[in-house]
Amino acid sequence: MIFKEITVFKMEKGTNTNLIHEKLKEIGLNQQITEELISCFDTVSFTKNQIIQDSNKTGGYLYFLEKGIVRHYYAKNGKEFTSWFSKEGDFVANAGFFAQKPVKEIIVAIEDVEVFALSYKDFEKFCEESYELECFVRDYLAEQLFLLEQYIADTFLLSATERYNNFLKQFPDLVLRVPLIYIASFLSMTPETLSRVRANK
What residue numbers bound the domain in which 110 lies? Predict the structure, then answer.
């Protein structure tokens, strides 16, 4: 797939921001910081199969998924290895954004995607100004590390059926929206094995 530079559009007045408002309210940000933060987000659209963050590039934006699903994966010698899925209501970035270093993970739109994008410069500014946001980022990164550890443990310790059952619990709405070949890759099994597991449900 060919990487396309993103086109950023300033958020228009009247843009529906209900979902991101709800998310920031969950974090515990006060109303003033919430409004200031949202005003710094830009609106971005990606078409299906468009690369959002390419391999070996430093992430410049933290995204909030308003609509659509994205896939996180690694690629080598023509093979792809799915590492995660993100959907509506999720913040999306890889470790390279927070470290400001290039990483090998690729993020791609599985569907047409609409996001709010916050530049790293604005992200740093608000973390310095808001203790609540800084705490959220720390908690968010801790949660991501926990999920990563859990994913690695499940890959090594659980059967194919157990891994699929865990996927259904964690991503119950994605089975009908994500191609099975990507789900099989995420669960470290062949498409044929996944088909047998699903047939036995």
Answer: 9-130
180 has a pLDDT exceeding 50: yes
Contact 117, 8 (CB under 8 A): yes
**Cα–Cα dist 35/188, whole Å:** 42
pLDDT at 25: 81
H-helix segments, 61-119: 95-99
Total domains in the fold of the chain: 1
Q: How confident is the model at residue 1 (pLDDT cuts 50, 70, 90)?
A: very low
CATH at 28: 2.60.120.10
Nearest to 4 by CA among 61, 37, 46: 46
pLDDT tens, 138-148? 888 898 889 88
Q: List the 106-109 sheet strands across, edge first.
A: 51-53, 106-109, 70-76, 79-86
Q: Measured in Å, how far apart are the chain's first and last C-alpha atoms?
A: 35
Question: Could you tell me if residue 71 is inside a domain?
Answer: yes
pLDDT at residue 135 tops 60: yes
Q: Are 11 and 116 in contact (CB under 8 A)?
A: yes
The pLDDT value given to residue 64: 95
